[in-house]
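Field reference: sequence -> structure
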Amino acid sequence: MNLGRRFDIGAGIFVFLIILLTLYLTLNFLTTILLSVVLVFLLKPLYALFFRLTKKKQISSFLSIMLVFILILSLILGITSALLVELSYLQSSGAISDVEIDKTINEIDAWSKSFIPAWLYNSIIEIALRYAQEISDIPIAFATWVFPILQRELTAFGSNLPILFAHLIVVVFFTYYLLIDGKVFIDQAVDLVPQEKQGIVRRFLDELYSIYHTLFTVYFSTSMLSGVMAAIGFSLLGIPYPFLMGVVVAVFTLLPLLGPPFVFIPIAVYYLIVGDLFRCLILLVFGTVVLMVIPENVIRPHLAMMSSRIHPILTLLAYTAPIFVIGIIGVIVGPTLYGFLLAVYRSINAERKGL
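Structure field:
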């Protein structure tokens, strides 16, 4: 083996080790980078709109990110002000007093007697009284179990604030520059590939872009449609702040393990407490059917099939299965990995068929 060949092998091993070390040092920011990629796909239409108006990449990217930041800040301020107003109203009106709670319980009892057969009602009451004493200490046990957990989590959150802030800065800068130069980075990377392999690599990248566009943009669009339907339904039901509540539903719909129930169930409980049993029941039915069943089983799979021919089973796996393994960050990592494998499969399949 001549000296030049030895040098090439040694240099290759050294570069490979440096790549591994770099990946290790960047490991904690991997999900942050993936989040930036997701944001690029979501902000791409907005960026294109601003670019048509300004003809400046830097300004268009900055305006896209700033608009999202303003919307998030407005949402937080709107939710805070609405909660303060409603809590002040409850306190001043006495709707949560012992008298009102007793009145609500009596109304529920009267409603149950009128709709449930007497033998079934008496059986339910007998069972409830038998177990009431046994479970009377559950609230104390629950509080004893929950409070240390909340304290520990709040302490951890406070200590991790600098790290979270650093991740936020990285997300903002990555998103900013990927919107501007993302296509340039990809073209330069493809140029490093041998000439005879560039065709399949570009086919793979096209498939990957189409799949990611479907998985991320369609998912986001479905959540926004859920928010619109929620705002309309809340407005028809006479619920205060229907637009704000619709935005909250859209945000929670992005989180598979949370979703709309974390919005409409507390509102239903509120109306149950103040004695509006009819609106409580209607809200529960509306939330279950319109905000959960229809978006997840009709709208989202239909859009996914239309845009990039992704089977609903794959979409369900991509967004749900990883959450049980790595937590809520699986919403980002799952679609990224599943989409990558699907793009590889389609590229190889097309190459073998000579398409």
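Note: Residues 196-355 form one domain.
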